Amino acid sequence: MTESVYKVIELVGTSTDSWEKAAAAAVTRAGESLRELRIAEVVELDMTIDNGSVATYRAKVRVSFKYEGGS
User: Fold this and answer.
1) Distances (CA, A) of 54 to 4, 59, 63
2) Which of 16, 20, 22, 48 could join 59 via S-S bond, C-beta 3.0 to 4.6 A?
3) What is the pLDDT along the chain (71 residues), one digit of tens a residue?
């Protein structure tokens, strides 16, 4: 087995419906510009509140992908 290196970045996805959709939005967007996504880890959940009601669900997600060099 060849050794591999993976880079990890943190993203914040948002949704007006749920934390699940917020996390999925972050992964979907990352998949549009990054290749070989491997793991997505939800590290924090929060929400914004407007006039006493939930306005936006937010999910902070760590995403790893195969590192191919560069910065």
Assistant:
1) 42, 14, 26
2) 22
3) 678 888 999 999 999 999 999 999 999 999 999 988 989 999 999 999 999 999 999 999 999 998 876 65
- The model carries a pTM of 0.84
Q: Where are the domains of the chain?
A: 6-64
The total number of residues shown for the chain amounts to: 71
What superfamily in CATH does domain 6-64 come from? Flavin-binding protein dodecin (3.30.1660.10)
Can you tell me the distance from the alpha carbon of 38 to that of 67, in angstroms, rounded to the nearest whole number?
11
Structure-block tokens of residue 23: 């996390």
